[in-house]
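Customer ticket, subject: "Can you confirm the structure for Aspartate aminotransferase family protein?"

Message body: Hello, I'm evaluating your service for our small team and ran a test protein. I'd like someone to confirm that this is what the system normally returns, since I don't have a reference to compare against.
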Amino acid sequence: MRNMRSYAKSIALYEKTRKHLAGGVSSNVRYASVPVPLFFARGEGARLHDVDGNVHIDYVLGNGPAILGHAPKKVIDAVAASLGEGQLFAAQNPRETELAERLCRLLPGAELVRFSTSGTEAVLMAFRLARAFTGRDKILKFEGHYHGWSDQAYISARPPLNEAGPADAPVPVAGSPGMPASVLGDVAVCAWNDLDLLEQTLERHRGQIAGVIMEPIMVNGGAIPPAPGYLEGVRALCNKHGALFICDEVITGFRVGLRGAQGKFGVTADLSIYAKAVAAGFPLAMVAGRRDIMDTLLDKGVMHGGTYNGNVQSMAAALAALDVLEAHDGAVYRDLEARGTELMQGLASLAKKHRLPILVQGMPAIFQTFFTSGAAPRNYRESAACDRDAMLALHAALQEEGVRAQQAGKWFLSTAHDKPVIEETLAAADRAMAKVARA
Ligand code: PMP
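Agent reply: Thanks for trying us out. I re-ran your input and got the following:
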């Protein structure tokens, strides 16, 4: 019998932290950990070391940004070299020029970019741009898609099904107390991956929808890919209805490929939001898109601000990260895909061996393990029907074996997850699944 891991120091720190830091965490997303939100002393490559001395192979990766693993040397060196230059000038610095130029060269539909600090803020910028450009007020979003925690966006991101209305005509549901009811009037909600429903919803709000926003791969609702032809269909419907197509590539950008999901599926949005992996762990987000829309920031005075936007260290981090990600003509992404595929297939065959109803679905640099005996989920309601308690039990068993995946079953990969790390992960998953199967 292996010794149980001890989390005594994390538990003690959590209790102490709660006395002064609200809820003991800096983001509500971190509340629900096993046994408490853990405290980590350091991260290195594919591994995290917690304060109790436990080592975790990390597949959470800061919820996505750490595409090059923890403390990637090239990025850290570039940031360290920039530190003595200062941080913020409330003015421009030349790294912004270089980064913007590189991003416009790289990203589908990026005629201009504008930097922000977090994905939540960049989404708000995109909403404002869409409204200013079209002269319309409403945003159409999809159930289960997460676009940050703002009043305008945190709607129907994870709605309780008893409040969400019928599947073919969902109603907008505020995600948090404290959100004014008035915001719901500016949002139309639709089930994802269903073009007929989208068309009906656009018809119902004819002439009122400024923008249609989605995660082009529905990562937050379960790493669900778009049905063949779906994104092209959305593009055409947006054109027909005069609504802007807004792709939230905060997770998929620089992760499923250098040109994100749009590059992968050959579709171009009017506005796109990128964040997370682009700066490999430093705070950076952006809106990228059509010149005529982005120009309204200047021509029409569409307001966008932010003290930390374009700060020296985030620019240095992104430039260094891009150097790595762009190197060798996409070899980084070919490797990521190969390792991810190995891990996904390995987990699926272990599930079979242990007779667990686990479905592995995803891209593969970001994928999801679901407990279901049914077909692969195609939207939020189908993914919400999977067994979350069973996934939580697997999460706990994996953590006990030194593998850290998200509680909901999401797995992010980094370039630091090499073949030996994947093999070690599969050996640990074998033990974890055996335990779950016995329980
Ligand atoms: N959009 C998507 C698709 C996201 O996954 C997230 C964060 N997980 C956000 C927006 C919000 O980004 P941030 O946490 O940087 O505000």
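A couple of notes from the result: The chain has 14 helices and 14 strands. The chain has two domains: 8-71+330-438, 73-328. Feel free to reply with more questions.
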